[in-house]
Structure formats: structure tokens, C-alpha cells
Amino acid sequence: MATTGRPQLLAFLFCLSSFTFIVVLGQGEVPSAFVSLSNVTDQFALLSFKSLVTKDPHNVLSNWNSNISFCDWTGVSCGRGSQRIVALNLSEKALEGTLSPYIINLSFLQVLDLSNDCFHGQLLIDFSRLPLLENLFICKNNFEVLIPQTLSHCPRIQVLSVIENESYGSIPEFLGSLLELKHINLYGNKLTGTIPVTFANLSKLEHLNVGQNHMHRNIPSELGSITRLTLFSVEMNNLTGTLPKSLFNLYAIETLSFMTNKLTGHLPNDAGCFLPPRTLYGYKQF
Length: 286
What we know:
CATH superfamily: Ribonuclease Inhibitor
Signal peptide: 1-26
CATH architecture: Alpha-Beta Horseshoe
Keywords: Glycoprotein, Leucine-rich repeat, Membrane, Repeat, Signal, Transmembrane, Transmembrane helix
CATH class: Alpha Beta
Membrane topology: Single-pass membrane protein
Protein name: Leucine-rich repeat-containing N-terminal plant-type domain-containing protein
Helix content: 10-25%
Structural class: alpha/beta
Shape: elongated
Subcellular location: Membrane
């Protein structure tokens, strides 16, 4: 009897889980890819993250243990009404180590902020597993990375901040398809190639900084169509050609920085005449 009862129990549990699965989807609460992931998975992902932190001088992660809920661990925020992690903010904690690839199991993650820490190595994260990501801050670390192609699967991303790392390669064209982007800051890396003309598709973009890299060729005139742009900086690159007049028709612009390039020509005679006060940096007339 015990032998025949066990398969029946398993069948019942399977049917029950299938029913739950259908109900959740029917209510439109979460995509099916998330159903199989649980808060246990989130906790495991955090412990994996902690295991690769080699220095924690301020004992920030000392309460990352089973004595309290992981939603109460330092830097961790869970969603209201759930035990799923929506934000991991460990900025300015002087943490050192590499980043665990198991962070992809935080499938409800919206904010990842590791700014001003000492992480290094490759960024081995499949961002297609983090489709709800909105803000990615990894500035002022020592990540040696290409901008991951898998970021193209993060349609909600609004902020991409990779300031002062060791990022290399070209800026990918696909960033221009992430239409929620408001803030792109790639300042102080080793990026090469050209400024993607696809940035002109980003109608919500307010802040674009690709300064202090190794970009070359011209500044696309199409960028003058980004009407919400308040900051545009391409300083300290190897850009050539002339400044597009379209940039001076951006009514919201507050800061334009072109210094230390190989740009030629002169500023438009009416530059700024019809715009609010702004700052123009380092454009030498020839």
C-alpha cells in the first residue's frame, strides 16, 4: 500500500503545483519564468555572492546569516508582500572580490548598486535572467568587461553607470534599443570605436557621458534629436570632425563638454542664444 500510495501522492502534488501555476499566470501576477524560483533561491544567490567577497573591512556582511531573514540583511531590499529581492545596494562599502554569476537567480532584481567598491575581474552575469533590472551601478570598481550583450534583454533599464572601470571594446549598438534609458555614464574606461548613432532612438535620455575613453571619428548629428538631454560629454577622446549644430538646438541641455579631442571648425554664431544658460567646455576654434 505504501509503495502504490507514493506515486499517487507525487501525482497529486504535481497537479496541485500545475494548478497553482495556472492560477498565478491567469491573474497576470508574474511571468512563467519566475514561478519556479523561490526565496530559497534568492538566499542562495546572496550567500554565493558573499562567498566571493574576499575583504569586508567594515563587516558589512556580518549579518548575512540564518539568524535573521535575508530581507533584513545589510543592503538587501525585498518587495512588499513578497520575500523576493528587488534591490541590492552595497555601494561605498569597500567590499573586495569578484562577482558571483549566481546573482542571476535574483530574478526580481530591479536595482544593483556596487558603486565605489573594489570588485574586479570579469562580469560573468547573464543579464537576460534579470529582465526586471532598472538600475545598474558598477562605477568605480575594477571590472574588466565588454558591455554585456545580454543587457539587450533588460527592456526596463533606465540607468547604466559604469564609470571608471576597465571596460573595453566598442559601445554596442543595441543600447539604442533600450528605450527606457535615461542615464548612460561610461566615463573613464578603455572603450574604443564610435559613438552609436542608435543613441538617437533614446527619446527619454537625459544624461550621456562617454568621456575619457578612446572613441574616434565624428559626433553623430542625429544625437541632436534627443530633446530631453541635459548633459552631453565626450571629453578626452580622439573624436574628429566638426560639432553638429543640432546639439545647440537642445532646449534642455545644461552641460556640453568636448575638451581634449581633435575637433575642428568653430561654434555656431548663435550657439546658446535661444537656450537657457549652460556650460561649454574646451572647444577650440580653428
